[in-house]
Recover the amino acids of this structure.
């Protein structure tokens, strides 16, 4: 299973490094195919950015399945758990692609898929930083850091049950990270440097022992950047 996850991560990052491209023409000229490509791009990006942080949970499910195999009990391959997890992020990719279309339409993003409005950037930074302190973020992050209770509560037999379990875990990850992913609208949706930074931040929040401190420090940093940007007349740090 570890090899499968590694291959998925490598494929996703290979696409981001060498294959990621989009129609840079005004959004009014976009076809349905362009929107479909945008959704696919977001889905692959989310797989590459989120699977490293989900790896410990996936391997925990794999360990539970291995114990079942040793007991000669029925089990469902862990891959279906991964499919359910990626399904949650694929649905997010569809939603944020439609939001991105709207942001282009309202001229809040430039053709390079980056914020064209410093006030929009400031508002998004402050909102993302504030979200770091919300009970929803805290609850979702706690479930991601300590997934055993989630696995025991929602474990179901069969393929459908495994996909459902992965989907539920994906929803908690969404609750943790959806605002951080939306910061790509500030830094540039295809900005590889910031894609890597956000991937590392998500990984540290979920896996590293000092994650809770990082989480709050990041919230304060984002709020500070947003406030300074707003007070300086909308001069964005990333514009």
């Amino acid at each position: 299973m570890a090899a499968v996850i590694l291959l998925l991560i490598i494929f996703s990052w290979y696409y981001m490094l060498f294959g990621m491209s989009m129609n840079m023409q005004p959004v009014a000229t976009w076809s349905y195919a362009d929107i479909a490509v945008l959704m696919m791009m977001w889905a692959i990006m989310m797989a590459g950015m989120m699977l490293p942080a989900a790896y410990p949970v996936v391997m925990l499910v794999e360990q539970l399945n291995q114990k079942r195999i040793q007991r000669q009990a029925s089990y469902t391959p862990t891959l279906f758990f991964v499919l359910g997890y990626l399904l949650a992020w694929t649905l997010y990719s569809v939603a944020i692609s439609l939001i991105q279309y709207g942001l282009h339409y309202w001229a809040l993003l430039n053709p390079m898929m980056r914020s064209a409005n410093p006030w929009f950037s400031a508002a998004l930074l402050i909102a993302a930083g504030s979200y770091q302190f919300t009970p929803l973020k805290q609850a979702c992050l706690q479930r991601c850091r300590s997934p055993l209770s989630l696995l025991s509560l929602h474990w179901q037999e069969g393929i459908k049950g495994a996909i459902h379990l992965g989907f539920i875990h994906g929803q908690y990850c969404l609750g943790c990270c959806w605002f951080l992913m939306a910061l790509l609208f500030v830094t540039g949706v295809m900005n590889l440097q910031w894609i890597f930074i956000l991937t590392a931040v998500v990984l540290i929040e979920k896996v590293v022992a000092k994650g809770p401190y990082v989480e709050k420090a990041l919230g304060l940093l984002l709020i500070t950047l947003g406030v300074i940007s707003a007070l300086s007349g909308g001069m964005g740090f990333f514009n």
